[in-house]
Design a protein that fits this description.
Helices cover 25% and strands 28% of the residues. With 243 residues, it is an alpha/beta fold.
Length: 243
């Protein structure tokens, strides 16, 4: 999500802390450049494995070895892997999110932007809940993937989910419209609002599988689709190739 600073409060972190500390009273509002405002129910961010969609469950089943959960949020995925005996670190830019992770029992955490993270030797990088979003735009995708590649062991994997949002541009007559100001139709700008605080605008990227595969191969990965979700979403596995 958006970087936090004095003018950009840690909204996700505050919402997570409120719920965790029994102060839950409202959900997070998402303001989108593409569609009407939506809500993220805060309790959903604390879901159990049984409550997760199949795409997420499959990603957790495939995670192995030393694992980095990027954008760990409340730590639900991290905790599941930790309880399986996997060596896993929760990484998030939100101080509040990491505070919640620690309070819930996550043993290893990092508060940082993924592009500033340098520890390498990972077997698995986990990027779920529309993991391609952190790439921001199509033009930045290859550089993000190149950095992620540097964190992996040889033959290491990235497990990432996304959605093909072309359906959101379909007109009633079956034609499609496009935002001419965007390089790619999956680029969306969001803000989030919680308890009268609104974040700065930030870019978020939804990639269709064909485009993800193309970008992954440019950055030194093979890419396969693992499964499709029920609503244009999918899980992909990127495997690091030899230099």
């Amino acid at each position: 999500m958006a970087k936090k600073d004095s003018k950009n409060p840690d909204i996700f972190g505050q919402a997570l802390l409120d719920f965790h500390n029994d102060k839950y009273s409202e959900d997070i509002t998402v303001i989108s450049s593409l569609t009407e405002d939506d809500e993220i129910p805060v309790p959903y961010l604390f879901r159990s494995y049984e409550e997760m969609p199949e795409v997420e469950q499959k990603a957790l089943q495939l995670a192995q070895g030393k694992t980095l959960d990027i954008g760990a949020c409340a730590g639900s995925h991290t905790l599941y892997l930790q309880n399986k005996g996997i060596e896993v670190t929760a990484l998030d830019i939100s101080e509040g999110a990491i505070e919640v992770c620690k309070s819930r029992g996550v043993k290893s955490t990092q508060i940082t932007d993924i592009l500033d993270y340098r520890e390498s030797g990972y077997d698995t990088l986990l990027l779920i809940m529309n993991g391609t979003g952190i790439f921001q735009t199509l033009k930045k995708t290859e550089s993000y993937l190149t950095h992620l590649r540097s964190l992996l062991k040889t033959d290491g994997q990235i497990l990432v989910d996304s959605s093909d949002i072309a359906f959101m541009y379909e007109e009633e007559d079956g034609s499609y419209w496009r935002d001419a100001s965007r390089d790619y139709y999956g680029e969306v700008t969001f803000q989030i609002n919680y308890k009268n605080q609104t974040s700065a605008a930030f870019d978020w990227l939804y990639l269709d599988f064909k485009t993800l595969k193309k970008e992954a191969e440019k950055a030194g990965f093979t890419c396969e689709k693992i499964c499709d979700g029920p609503h244009y979403d999918f899980l992909a596995r990127l495997i690091k190739t030899e230099s």
